[in-house]
Amino acid sequence: MVINVASRLFREHGFDGIGLKDLMESAGLTQGAFYKQFASKDDLAAQASRRALESAFHRWSAAAAAHPQDPLGAVIAFYLSMDHRGERMDGCPVVALGSDAARQGFDVKASFEAGIKDYLDLLGPWVGEAGDGEPGSKAMATLSTMVGAVVLARAVNDEHLSKRFLQAAAESVLTGASAGEAQQGPVQ
């Protein structure tokens, strides 16, 4: 329960933007109960990050499973949407917390690294890369484009400009993926 609440609140406020007292109150518990469950706020941040990234991965997987003929298109449709742009508490943790995670300790970074690798493992075959265990440059560029577009779309007030960032990224990713398929042939 606390991990789920923290996962959402960290995405909304950042790791340092909310204190333990407010976190625990939001979970319906006292601050004293925190230390019975977690070694430190860093421990909670690592567990909450892991949970948020797992949730995001399941969302990607569900979108892909619902549209097996075009899994990349399905993920792009929700990820690079104005709805996702507005999901401060439930959106992609890499978008919401990526720059914060870079300033955190080993365990938080490890949670992010594992989640990012999961994203890359899904993207690889969709952009025409063989699954040899090592992320390919197309998958990395695709993820970078997607995350960057949502970050930029959230950073501006102008809704039209925000939509244009998302649309441009979607076009770029889908064009790049279809070019990769044309060069390498269909992915089995």
From TrEMBL:
Residues annotated as signal peptide: none
Family matches, as InterPro entries: Homeodomain-like_sf (IPR009057), HTH_TetR (IPR001647), Tet_transcr_reg_TetR-rel_C_sf (IPR036271)
Domain HTH tetR-type: residue ranges: 1-56
PROSITE patterns: HTH_TETR_2 (PS50977)
Superkingdom: Bacteria
Keywords attached to this entry: DNA-binding, Transcription, Transcription regulation
Residue ranges of DNA binding: 19-38
Full protein name: TetR/AcrR family transcriptional repressor of nem operon
Source species of the chain: Labrys monachus
Taxonomy of the source species: Bacteria, Pseudomonadati, Pseudomonadota, Alphaproteobacteria, Hyphomicrobiales
